[in-house]
Design a protein that fits this description.
Keywords: Disulfide bond, Periplasm, Redox-active center, Signal
Signal peptide: 1-27
Number of helices: 7
Family: Belongs to the thioredoxin family. DsbC subfamily.
Domain Thioredoxin-like fold: 117-238
CATH superfamily of the largest domain: Glutaredoxin
Organism: Tibeticola sediminis
Shape: elongated
Mean pLDDT: 88
Order of helices and strands: HEEEEEEHEEHEHHHEEH
């Protein structure tokens, strides 16, 4: 082939190959979606289908960010963790952490009340329900943490009494005192009234970001921890998040 002709044709061949490969992946994804949806009527909506590092294994991300795995035809479905034994990494766990990350800068901080300890240099946000026993335990561990700013988002998901207490705390003249009196000393917040639209916005934000339980802790690096973690683990996560800023 003439050199100049080769120069023109080779990129076209490579480009066509690229489109063929992409088309093959899209066709495979379509097959997986079709077969799983038709065969499993109660399967939640499939949000994404993508290849994994393991040959022949595909990741299926469902609505709500649940992760399943399947073969190239959608004939088999696997629930569990995918682990890279060479790197000793839990790929499923890493993927879920990435999916659940929340950009700290997008938090509606005006809808939280703030507790500052020490110089407040480290930051975290907590979605919390006043009637959640794990939140009370977590609050006790928070007393051991210094140099932190805590944005508390009232997130009443445990019923009408939770909503009522959250309203009274939010409308209190001193929100921090009302919160700490209840969570640390079991002194119920006094009845109060004000604009409580912030609580509705918190619930909506939580739904959008799949915050399904309390407490849920969000860190400045985008990571989150669902559930009450001890002071040692919390200290570790705060230090890790601060070092990434």
């Amino acid at each position: 082939m003439h050199p100049s002709l080769h120069t023109l044709v080779r990129p076209l061949i490579l480009s066509a190959l690229g489109f063929c490969l992409a088309g093959g992946a899209l066709a495979q994804e379509a097959t997986i979606r079709k077969n799983l949806s038709e065969r499993l009527a109660n399967l939640p909506k499939i949000e994404e289908v993508s290849k994994t590092p393991m040959p022949g294994l595909w990741e299926v991300r469902l609505q709500g960010n649940d992760i399943l795995y399947t073969d190239a035809e959608g004939n088999y479905l696997i629930q569990g963790a995918l682990v890279d034994t060479r790197a000793r990494r839990n790929l499923t766990e890493e993927r879920l952490e990435k999916l659940s990350a929340v950009d700290f800068s997008t938090l509606p901080l005006k809808d939280a009340f703030v507790v500052t300890r020490g110089d407040g240099s480290r930051k975290m946000a907590v979605f919390t329900d006043p009637n959640c026993p794990y939140c009370k335990r977590f609050e006790a561990d928070l007393q051991k943490i210094s140099n932190v700013t805590i944005y508390n988002f009232l997130y009443p998901v445990l019923g009408k009494d939770s909503t009522e207490k959250a309203k009274n705390i939010w409308c209190a003249k001193d929100r921090v005192k009302a919160w700490e009196d209840w969570m640390q000393r079991n002194t119920p917040p006094a009845g109060a009234s004000c604009d409580t639209a912030a609580l509705s916005r918190n619930l909506e934000f939580g739904r959008q970001h799949h915050i399904t339980g309390t407490p849920t802790v969000l860190f400045t690096d985008g990571s989150r921890v669902p559930g009450a973690v001890g002071a040692a683990q919390l200290e570790k996560r705060l230090s890790e998040a601060s070092s990434k800023r």
